[in-house]
Specification:
The chain starts with 17 loop residues before the first strand and ends with a strand. The strands form 3 sheets. Strands 9-8-7-10-11 form a 5-stranded antiparallel β-sheet, with helices on one face. The protein has a 4-stranded antiparallel β-sheet with strand order 2-3-4-5, with no helix packed on it. It has a two-stranded antiparallel sheet with strand order 1-6. The chain has 2 domains: about 70 residues, SH3 type barrels, CATH 2.30.30; about 70 residues, Nucleic acid-binding proteins (OB fold (Dihydrolipoamide Acetyltransferase, E2P)), CATH 2.40.50. It is mainly beta and about 160 residues long. The longest helix is centred in the C-terminal third of the chain and has 10 residues.
Amino acid sequence: MADEDYAIETTDAGASATIPMEAGQIKKGGFMMIKGKPCKVLSISVSKTGKHGHAKCNFTAVDIFTGKKLEDMIPSSHGTTVPIVNRSDWEIIDIEGEELTLMDEGGNQKTDLNLPSYPDTMAEEIRSAWNGGENSVIVTVQAAVGIEQVVAWKKEG
């Protein structure tokens, strides 16, 4: 018995990309998942309860990565999911084709991101600032539900 081999497979720590939340607790400007997409809530309208029903929340939101407008209606006492969204600033070290090489303040490098496809003009603005010999171009990377994308940029110095 003691000499049997056991295959131990590694797994992640179980950290979820979303957290559950009651629909009535979501605020304008907050985030929520609609149709599997992480969205920023633009407006919320609440309908009054019927004789036997719940108050319903009608959410209008925009996908944080594509800018596509989405809507959802959920009873206010029912649960929904909220994505965990992180934003961080990175300095561009190199642009090769569509691929970016980035570095953060701690000296860590990131090479798995491309120039953004949304909004349409941002990739060209970043490229022209970089080619224009700016001292440093800083991009803001937004991450949620396993997706990372450049969502903003600015010139430093």
